[in-house]
Amino acid sequence: VPVEFEAALPILRKIEAAGYEAYFVGGSVRDTILQRPIHDVDIATSAYPSEVKGLFARTVDTGIEHGTVMILDHGNGYEVTTFRTESGYQDYRRPDKVTFVRSLKEDLKRRDFTINALALSENGEITDLFGGLDDMKHKIIRAVGDPEQRFNEDALRMMRAVRFASQLDFQIEAQTLSGIYDHSQLLKKIAVERIHTEFVKMMLGTDAPRGLSLMVTSQMYRFVPEFGSHAAAIKQIAEQSFHLQNEVQVWALFTSTFGYDRSQITQFLKRWKTANKIINDVILTTELIDQIKSHSVGNLELYTAGRANVLNAIQVLGTAKSDLIDQYDHLPITNKKQLKVTGGDLIKDGILKPSPKLGQTLTALEKAVVLGQIHNHKAALESAAIALNKD
Ligand code: ATP
Ligand code: MG
């Protein structure tokens, strides 16, 4: 039993001592059985949210409307969710109504796949109503219940199926797969943020090329932002073998293959609702990839990209380009702050006054140091600053 479960056992015991049922559920149970590392421990209970709150001193209403209460305990937080059923799925999105119930079975029935519909009790017993253990043994992703209906209820489940196929290296069971083939267009009803999360997890999985191939053969790719206009490029990527380590690499693989420039990358990633920090790194990584491909990468290009993006570009290219990291690690400076002269120095020493010229001079010095044209010594930099500004 993983330490994460050990630490949460007193919570389960306390809920049970009050006469309710409580179980570990979801991804943490699945990943424990598969001997994979677990992150969030989810607890499901027959107690209603108000009853859960009555039992613990410190709770936070993290998602009280759908039955989730966070219990704070010794610096840890545990999400405890009341057994529920879901109804009123409209527009193939999440349900607009959840009903709290007292039955574990009802709660497990609403879950997406058999491997995600297991419950683990405090004494180590597993409740497996849909053959999830067997499917795990045979590495199969199978919808709970009728796949057609389940994908109609919530089309995101199709992305999740592909995500788990990539992450776990599992096969999607035939009926479940044909449900995906038949309903791929429903993906356009789903909020981009939700697709984004599953898509990035899929692309970071061990078998991401197969995940992407599944999106191609099922046509799902046509219903996510901008992929529809790049069918050939998407298919080409799906046929490559690649292994990516972070979200920047995921997007850079696409933007460099699409041949996107800075403004196209920004527009594309904004449509995918990507964080600004990521967008900036994708631009730097993509530009560096273009330069590496055209054999025009020098110290200035490496310096501009930064070490993390040099690593990102190498990983996306998937080629033995580790000489680039060597080259990067021999740069005279890797950051503007390492320049041995500051604007303050140039003013104090009477070389320049506060003015736009000051900033321009510092930028020119920075570039010259990176290119090895000036030594990064204060005296050398100040003479260069004087030479740059004599007119
Ligand atoms: P991860 O390890 O990446 O968190 P997970 O399976 O735990 O994977 P979550 O999104 O954390 O995924 O969801 C927790 C559980 O809630 C799932 O295991 C599944 O039982 C259920 N679940 C999540 N999303 C859906 C959905 N769209 N439809 C039905 N059940 C879902
Ligand atoms: Mg989870």
TrEMBL record:
EC number: 2.7.7.72
Cofactor annotation: Mg(2+)
Record Pfam families: PolyA_pol, PolyA_pol_RNAbd, tRNA_NucTran2_2
Note: A single active site specifically recognizes both ATP and CTP and is responsible for their addition.
Subunit-level organization: Homodimer.
Family: Belongs to the tRNA nucleotidyltransferase/poly(A) polymerase family. Bacterial CCA-adding enzyme type 3 subfamily.
Name this polypeptide is given: CCA-adding enzyme
Native species: Lentilactobacillus parafarraginis F0439
